[in-house]
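Batch manifest, entry 17 of 40.
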Amino acid sequence: MRDRKIDERARQLLMLENEISGREAEDIEAEISALHQGVADLEPPVCREVIVLHYRYGLTFREIAERLNVSETTVYKHLRSALDQLRLTLTPPER
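Output type: structure tokens
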């Protein structure tokens, strides 16, 4: 569901691109790039795998657990870790 929200956010940003100045479009492009890089940099790699399986491919915790041969609780913990990492990476510093 969160990946769908990310995809929807990216689509919204791209739709707005036609309505905004070149500088604003560059900022949007940078935000999308940071999101993709943030996912690519997730550690440990199993966090990246869990977030991609859940949000990109829509697998349930149970399906991911079966695929990775771990418990659903472990899947949840990896997903939480991945989301926490992304939140830290993508949150702009306070001024």
